[in-house]
Amino acid sequence: RKATAALGVLLRGGPGLVRAMRPAEVRSLITLFLANRELVLSGCASLRDFAAAAVAHGLPIAVPAEGAELVATLEVSGGPHRLVLRGERGADGMLPTLRIINPQPLIIVHDGEVVLENLQLQQMSPRHGVDAEALHVAGLGAAVTCRRVLLHSHSDCGVCVTAGRLQMTDCAIQDCGGTGLILFGGKAQLRRTAVERNGRCGVYARNSCLEFLGGNHIADNGHSGIFFAADTKGLWMKGNRLRHNGQPAVRLLEHCALDGWEQHNKRRRPPQAMSQGANMSINVNMNLNMCMPRRGDIPGLGGDDDRPELNPDRELEAGHLPLPLQSSFVARIFLM
User: Fold this and answer.
1) pLDDT (tens digit, 9 = 90+) per residue, 157-197?
2) In degrees, to the nearest 5, what angle opens at C-alpha 137 toward C-alphas 31 and 243?
3) Burial class (CB in 10 A: 0-12, 13-18, 19+), 238
4) What is the dihedral of CA 63, 66, 70, 73, to 10 degrees?
């Protein structure tokens, strides 16, 4: 109330009073006045403009139930505040959708903290052999948190991490043309997250760290559910499920480890051990193509044209995102 009253006095005082105050004082009053408010995404400006304002002033962005279609990638490069992108369910209970059709990633985070909540992120380009993920975590200083987010890429992987940190809780990566989740570096933690019905592997990781912290469901993927290569380390805790994936369900190449896998899956056949010497080379060469993501799953490389086509009009399931949006916003600000 004090900030509102002070800002009212400032505005009634006219230009003379504004000029008499220092810019820092004006900014401080505006920041206090805008506390606990949000920007509501609308057609009056691009999401990039909203994101710049949100990062500069610490305001969350609310995505209305009707969602939005992007014409260009949202690139986040850090700032004084974290970026919060939060969706509001419609009357039918569905999550709002951010969608892009152009053959490019939907969201790339180079630096800074980003929080995504209650959203569907859809990359709908039918073009193969391009980098077209729904989400790309791409910088050492990037830290992305996803809560109740459903991710889909029609022809590429759903999520790619090349550096930085990713945390996913109550999320789903479903029906992607390529691999569901790919890591070429950095670290990812999954809780109560489904990785299902993806065209290639469920999860593929190289030179990275991946932790399955419980309640995750990896199922019905075209190739291996989990594929670790090039010194990747992981953690498999009690309560995760892995079923109906391509064989082998878990593939761990040399110098890779998934701690807890055998302990919590005693009834399952343990991953095939890789022996040293010529036998290892033969086994790798014969089986690598079964599980390795194809070229379209690796940034910068072309893809194959023989992938099964997905129906871009198919409505994505939200069965793994049951938690309702609890909105605690005090007021809203529309950019005009």
Assistant:
1) 999 999 999 999 999 999 999 999 999 999 999 999 999 99
2) 125
3) exposed
4) 40
